Amino acid sequence: MSLSTRVLNVRQVTESLCEGLEAEDMTVQPIADVSPIKWHLAHTSWFFEQLVLRPYLPGYPIFNEAYCQLFNSYYKSLGRHWVQGDRGSLSRPSVREIMEYRRHVNKALRKLFEGFDSSSAAAPDSDNGLRHLLELGVQHEEQHQELILMDIKYILSRNPSNPIFHQAPLNESIAPSMNWTSYPEHIATIGADRDRFDFSFDNERPRHKVYVHPFSIRDSLVTNAEFLSFIEDRGYQKPEYWLSLGWDWLNVQSAKHPLYWSCVDGVWSEYTLHGLIPLNPCYPVTHISYFEASAFARWSGTRLPREEELEIYLAATPAGAKDHALHPTDPNRSEGQVWCWTQSAYAAYPGYEEYSGNLREYNGKFMCNQFVLRGGCVATPKGHARSTYRNFFMPEQRWMFSGLRLAKDSR
Ligand SMILES: [Fe+2]
What we know:
The protein is α+β, with helices and mostly antiparallel strands. It is built from 9 helices and 12 strands. The strands form 4 sheets. Strands 10-9-8-11 form a 4-stranded mixed β-sheet. Strands 1-4-12 form a 3-stranded antiparallel β-sheet, with helices on one face. Strands 5-6-7 form a 3-stranded antiparallel β-sheet, with no helix packed on it. Helix 1 packs parallel to helix 5, helix 2 (37-56) packs parallel to helix 4 and helix 2 (37-56) packs antiparallel against helix 5. It is globular and about 65 Å long. The structure holds fe (ii) ion.
């Protein structure tokens, strides 16, 4: 598929994700991390407008000057931006106006694409060249498609009527494999180079060597049943399992279980995009913070994997077809169920070269106080993630589909 077709397709997919939503669903922001859905619809358009259309389409008319500030996420080099936690205070522009904005941007993109795929503009070029910016626009919009699903889950979960977002039935239970895969001490090569995949972000590069001590990794994700055992063993009440910051977090939050779990008269349930369901013991546990993942690993006598260990494991393990459910159900799949916490701080690889120009702000400036997660989740668009993909979140965050795969040192 040509790049121009991919751009127009990804724009359409974003809108189709929101088809079942009302304008009211798309306007609220219950916590700072969760943006209004209409903000995502506008911000992904702002990205193409500011980074592609303004520099590359002569005479492009900015849709609305006020949007340049309202829908700039955090690019200081592109001017003032609205505060993230205040996105939900904006009743205007309305969803209708934002959809008009999307059509305006799409129309301009189509104009830009006249003769594009066969022209020299379609040749590979620098980070700030047109072809790379369009590719980044696709990848960026896919990242926001995932965020839309994570955010609407949180938004709908606040409603005691447990709204159903996705009507499809969930898969049957699959018993977790309790096998471990062992790797010897060796020097591994991890990361991406520009020519290794069709696309990689700057934070995945360069490909480089790491020294790997002998380790084992479990072939299944940690399940709800296992996590329930931790809870029933009073894991949330025993400080010896928790990092110091984690124990403080637990007490401030009064956390007693993963984010969307609830217990009524001793019966556990879990809110999902498919509605409220009885807690399935075989499904992978999800929506846990780094602190909870770390405490569970310590309780079980294991540890969180390092990011290079997970990359080695994922690169050697077939991912399987994309699951159409919007909830993780198969603990034995290597990818596409839950983003797995690693114990690796999100930091630059040796020889890292961050994007230049405005794109410098895309990844590198977030390399502080965050941990790397690997493997993709049920909300990740098909083909978006790869074994070298580095997602990153703060240790207390858990509204994303985060989960856990265990590792241990081998002798
Ligand atoms: Fe963004």
